[in-house]
User: Which sequence fits this backbone?
């Protein structure tokens, strides 16, 4: 679906038109991906019964196959037609009145981030307007170009110390903010940092996002309005792995920004993988043993590259973070982090050993670790103890341990 570039259409109107094209695209893709496993299971179950009936039921089998194919083809065409109707209707409406934004709303941001997490690698391949392009976001959630002029407008009082915040799976930069004045962003700003927020497509491979983040930080390094003294990167969940990947890429590529990087903080990052993704992989393979459930296995296997990367984390990767201070935070739902149950289930998404990056096989080389009890995965970024510790780690005058070189 192409978007008209009418000279009378403002950039904002074109963005909103792209939003509605993305809605149409989403309807078509969702119809396709949901219908396929249902059709496959339907065919397999019907085929099983006709097989039991023997050759005399072959004419009925062919008739049933034809009806099944026709039914599901109609459903797919219907989804495609609805998607095209939404896109065409938006294009027509946009000629006479301003279109309402879709992804700039709170609900729209949530829907877009979730679907990018599920199928974002497909969106990137299709160059779909639904796909999120990795980049900075301003306080209103709008894209912020990494140019000196744009950065100066967004940060009228730029600091020499920068912190880049990398959100987790299926989230946006809003995950770092809360209504409380003590949230992490405000705390770091009070400590004299300029805090930069990022949004990215969490369905893409972690290495691909790490590469793009490394390139973005190089642009920011060159465009920042004042000389930079140091850069810190904080990542939550998948964001911790993306941040680490960006540092590794920058070191191997000779990027200049990494020479100013002092601290890397990973909060609830699945260094050794997440048990949820490992469980889904086992279920998917188990479903593949039976003909009737193979389509459902294939459906689960369509989950994004980003999700699949969470199965193993950084295990097996050669990824030294150089001389950076590497700080990690882990959570456990039990009040005492040392509780055996707490160690096993962790924060319900990532186990304690995976978040700390310490096992018999591998140690990520963290400079210091904080393990907090009575917290789930989402709680960590807003927890007062975590916020205080992160601020202490990033402020050399406050912390004990590794000193700033």
Assistant:
């Amino acid at each position: 679906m192409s978007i008209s570039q009418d000279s009378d259409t403002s950039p904002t109107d074109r963005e909103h038109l792209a939003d509605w094209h993305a809605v149409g695209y989403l309807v078509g893709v969702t119809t396709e991906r949901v219908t396929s496993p249902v059709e496959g299971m339907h065919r397999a179950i019907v085929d099983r019964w006709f097989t039991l009936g023997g050759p005399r039921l072959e004419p009925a089998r062919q008739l049933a196959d034809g009806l099944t194919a026709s039914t599901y083809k109609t459903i797919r065409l219907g989804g495609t037609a609805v998607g095209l109707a939404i896109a065409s209707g938006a294009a027509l409406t946009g000629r006479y009145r301003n279109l309402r934004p879709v992804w700039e709303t709170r609900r729209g941001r949530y829907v877009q981030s979730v679907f990018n997490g599920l199928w974002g690698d497909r969106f990137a391949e299709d160059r779909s307007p639904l796909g999120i392009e990795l980049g900075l976001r301003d306080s209103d959630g709008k894209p912020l170009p990494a140019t000196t002029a744009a950065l100066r407008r967004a940060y009228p009082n730029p600091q020499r110390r920068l912190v880049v915040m990398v959100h987790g799976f299926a989230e946006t930069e809003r995950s770092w903010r809360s209504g409380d004045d003590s949230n992490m962003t405000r705390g770091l700003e009070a400590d004299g940092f300029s805090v930069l927020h990022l949004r990215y497509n969490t369905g893409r491979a972690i290495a691909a996002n790490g590469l793009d983040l490394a390139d973005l930080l190089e642009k920011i390094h060159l465009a920042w309005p004042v000389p930079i003294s140091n850069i810190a990167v904080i990542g939550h969940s998948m964001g911790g792995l993306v941040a680490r990947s960006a540092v590794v890429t920058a070191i191997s590529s000779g990027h200049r920004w990494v020479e100013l990087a002092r601290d890397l903080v990973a909060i609830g990052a699945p260094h050794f993988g997440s048990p949820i993704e490992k469980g889904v992989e086992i279920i998917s393979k188990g479903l593949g043993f039976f003909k009737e459930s193979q389509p459902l296995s294939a459906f689960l296997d369509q989950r994004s590259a980003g999700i699949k990367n969470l199965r193993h984390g950084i295990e097996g990767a050669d990824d030294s973070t150089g001389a950076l201070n590497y700080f990690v935070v882990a959570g456990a739902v039990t009040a005492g982090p040392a509780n055996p149950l707490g160690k096993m289930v962790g924060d319900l998404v990532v186990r304690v050993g995976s978040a700390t990056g310490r096992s018999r096989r591998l140690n990520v080389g963290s400079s210091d670790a904080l393990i907090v009890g009575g917290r789930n995965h989402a709680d960590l970024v807003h927890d007062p103890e975590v916020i205080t510790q992160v601020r202490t780690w990033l402020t050399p005058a406050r912390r004990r341990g590794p000193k700033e070189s």
Notes: The chain is about 50% helix and 10% strand.
